[in-house]
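Late entry, written up from scratch paper. The run itself happened at the end of the previous shift, but nothing got recorded in the book at the time, so transcribing now.
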Amino acid sequence: MNKAVQAIQRYALSGILQSGLGDSDFRVLEVLLHKGPLPVNTIGPKVNLTPGSISVAVERLHRKGLVSRVESAEDRRIRMVALTRQGKNLIVVVFRKHAAAIRKVFSEIPADAQRQLEKTLKQAGRQAEALGLAEERER
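Output as recorded:
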């Protein structure tokens, strides 16, 4: 399973890197594209980045003009991160290419097998999450 995941990641990442984005930048822009503006501390867990790493990524994207950072009107301690027009234009194109690359990887697998794989992976992911939480509580 790890070998398959790593091969897919290498293939998909090559297209992302060709766009001039790194992996973490792509993940941040992609979550903002699909979820809309988010507090910076909410983005990290969604894209598997630590608080320090998400701060660095958001700062880098801000310097490139791809995201904006604004203090929340309700709570000035919260900084909202949103795509700029330039950021949205970039991630829409990059994400379309990324999605096409993933579809290409799975193109020879019948649709019903793809649906079953998706269902099975979701079940395995939920089980792994539950086991991890149970182990944390036991410590």
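The chain has a mean pLDDT of 93.
(Scratch paper discarded after transcription.)
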